Amino acid sequence: MRGVLAGMAAVVVFGLVGVAVAQQPVNVTQWRGGARDGGATGFAPPATWPEQLRQRWKIDVGTGYATPLVVGNRVYIFSRQGDEEVMSALDAESGKAVWRTPYAAPFTPMSAAAGHGPGPKSTPVLANNRLFSIGMTGIVTAYDAASGKPLWTKPASPPTQYTTHSFSPIIEGSNVIFHVGGQDEGALTAFDMASGTVKWRWAGDGPGYGSPVVVTLGGTRQIVTGTQAKIVGVEVANGALLWELPFPTQATTNSLTPLFYGQTFIIGGNGRPLEAYAPTKRDNTWVVVKVWENADVMMRMSNGIIVGDTVFSLSTKNAGQYFIADAKTGKTIWTSEGRQATNASIWKAGDTVLSMESDGELVVMRVSATAAEPVRRYKLSDEETWGAPSLAGNRLFVKSVNTLALWTVN
Q1: pLDDT digits (tens, 9 = 90+) for 289-334
Q2: For the sheet containing 213-217, what is the strand order?
């Protein structure tokens, strides 16, 4: 039906530096992994993938797209159960609840966004034994990770037009950063992790659907994120706007996490080409220079990864096809057959690329210095899997529309 990525091994050529995954921690504490780049540094791919993965348990946890967080033998999941949003801690071996902390959050999506579901869509972040989350109505909560006790909270804020609150928070120093509020009054906001005190705000545009990264560009530590209609760089020390790039997309707001290749970020959007930009400071003024664009591949909601000197992701072209593009020039190196997937969460671990497709199938691809080839395809859910899985050790925690399941690689 999909050609199982036919011809991949014969066409794709690129280099990859190996990762010693066995020596890395197996914790998953935030959106897209420790570097927020899709690197599953705590996952150890087997030398030979089995014909089947083993499902250890599967439980109903409620709706939502949040990535499960994993610390040792504890799994944290943020979900919706009826009119409540719930932060839960589970025993990783059994799936049994350790604690459950709900709060009232009635929510009905507007008709144009009804197909997106009632959420929540933001992945929490865990640091210093504390969990931080934002729900669909904009309620921000800090929890004690051991007990589930709420430590501080911020009230609901107006949702954005289509996406509500989907921005996954990020930690920088002693602050946790959210984009709160609606499209007309939203503010990128840094809260003190311990007290919830607002340390700074930037209110130049409402939140986007995607999530940020924190990088150092031109010697300045900054948060780079998509907003409703821009890509911006904001200084993490004080919230000052360093630069902004108008970046409107078709029908929806910006939905991707920027990918960094050196001092260049690579981004796409609904109806836009794949594009690369270099924010640069010249005579104390920031300018954003377009490095390249490639209209042959387009990303909508499937975040990509950097593999060596290439970009790997899922394009919306031809009803969903994987692609490789040169990260330096943007030139297309390879595309798969079409009709692969509507959406995919893509991860890398050593010489292995794993793509969790939204129809519940996991595609495993192996990468060498000369080729990438399909290894296995596993059906892991009969429900849609729009949320990104967590990969830790030999474990895959897969969140579908309503359930969370643990699969292991033997």
Answers
A1: 999 999 999 998 899 999 889 999 999 999 999 999 999 999 999 9
A2: 213-217, 220-226, 230-235, 241-246
The structure tokens 């579908």 sit at 400
Q: Write down the residue that tokens 């209110």 correspond to.
A: 203
Contact between 398 and 385 (Cβ < 8 Å): yes
Q: Collect all residues with Cβ–Cβ distance below 8 Å to 37 and sequence separation of at least 6.
A: 213, 259, 260, 305, 306
- How many CB atoms are located within 10 Å of the residue 84 CB? 16
Cα separation, 254 vs 265, in Å, equals 15
Which amino acid belongs to residue 202?
A: W
Question: What pTM was estimated for this model as a whole?
Answer: 0.91
Number of residues that this document lists for the chain: 410
CB 407 within 8 A of CB 390: no
DSSP structure class, residue 43: B
**Is residue 70 within 8 Å of 26, Cβ to Cβ?**
yes
The DSSP call for residue 257 is P
- The Cβ of residue 382 has, within 10 Å, a number of other Cβ atoms equal to 11
User: In whole angstroms, how large is the CA radius of gyration of the chain?
Assistant: 20
The Cα–Cα gap between 111 and 165 comes to: 16
| Residues in a beta bridge with 266 | 259, 276
Phi and psi, residue 127, nearest 5°:
-160, 145
Q: Which amino acid is at 27?
A: N
For the chain, list the domains and their CATH numbers: 3-408 (2.130.10.10)
Q: Where do we find the tokens 């986007």? A: 208
Q: pLDDT for 44-61, tens place per residue?
A: 788 899 999 999 999 999
The number of angstroms, rounded, from the C-alpha of 19 to the middle of its chain's C-alpha atoms is 21
- Nearest CA-CA partner of 125 in 164, 178, 165: 178
HSE of 17, CA atoms in CB hemisphere, 13 A: 5
The amino acid at residue 404 is: L
Sign of the C-alpha dihedral, residues 214, 216, 221, 225?
negative
Helix, strand, coil shares of the chain, percent, nearest 5, are: 5, 45, 50
Stretch (H or E) spanning 37? none
Q: What is the DSSP letter of 227?
A: B
- Distance CA(51)–CA(376), nearest Å, equals 8
